Fold each of these.
Amino acid sequence: MKQTPSTEQSAVLRKTVLFCQGCEYHAPTTGSWVIHEKASCEVYECPHCRETVTVRDRMD
Ligand SMILES: [Zn+2]
């Protein structure tokens, strides 16, 4: 019973789910990914197999 949507917040967070290519791990961007903050981007890394999952541009 871990799917208990609680109003607007989860609706927003649910929009982006990342899938690891190296294993079967998947989680929303707010999940337990290892995030390396670079000067101009953020590198999301799988906490299980260390595969780079995605690179997001930093807006600020
Ligand atoms: Zn993985």
Note: Residues 20, 22-23, 25, 46, 48-49, 51 surround zinc ion (CB under 6 Å).
Amino acid sequence: MGLKKLITTCYKNQNPELFTENNSERAIYLEYNGEKNGRTIPTPEEIGIKPLRGDGDFRSPECVELLKQADIVVTNPPFSLFREYVAQLIEYDKKFIILGQQNAITYKEIFKLIKENKIWLGVDNNGTKWFRVQDHYDIATESRKKIENGKKYFSMGSIVWFTNLDIKKRHEDLTLYKQYNPEEYAKYDNYDAINADKVSDIPIDYSGGIGVPITFLDKYNPEQFEIVKFRKGDDDRDLSINGQCPYFRIVIKNKKAIV
Ligand SMILES: C[S@@+](CC[C@H](N)C(=O)[O-])C[C@H]1O[C@@H](n2cnc3c(N)ncnc32)[C@H](O)[C@@H]1O
């Protein structure tokens, strides 16, 4: 890929392979400093294995020092520490492409960043993502495992890419074709917005608030839409229609509504 440098840290691990067993109080990191032999794939000798002083916790001062050197962070962080991990990337003003659970969108801290256009969903968020793993990697759940052409793949369920790198789809207008009519689009009890159950139901000609499912974020182009609110109405309760709450709604406005 022509990378100038690549640093990867392990967590509680001494094994330079990808999959950590978390069995060591001290960890290592690997540093690749660009291709020296003119080949496209680095040889193990070109990748230096260096010891860390501690266990490789991303919050440790030595890992923060490594983070500071990075232009772009690409990783699959521990999902239980996702908020903290993203907060650190924002604090150090890093560009990133990271994996997270789809429902991380609904975390207050993450949604706030999405609303402020500081992070967004990356490409390829439709369907199951498969990751090539080594043959000995143990996958207990059958539905998360597949073998294709003799190669083993693993899937992690409903995960999506989160990024702050600009991508083409963020500038592509979603094609809308439905027209607003008050019979078809219910209004919420506790917020001045209409409800659209599917992204494809967003009317072309409504300039007020529209509640949409979180799958909208995969199609979100900030030149076309504005994100107004998440989940709650004016009374700080979940948005409801005749007392019934649809699953998590994001209230948006169509900036290009043809009215
Ligand atoms: C979702 S897994 C991804 C692992 C690996 N990148 C992969 O694709 O299999 C998250 C990883 O973060 C590691 N981890 C957990 N807590 C951590 C921490 N505080 N600092 C750094 N890494 C941590 C876990 O050991 C785990 O390997």
Note: Residues 11, 18-20, 22, 56-58, 76-79, 81 surround S-adenosylmethionine (CB under 6 Å).
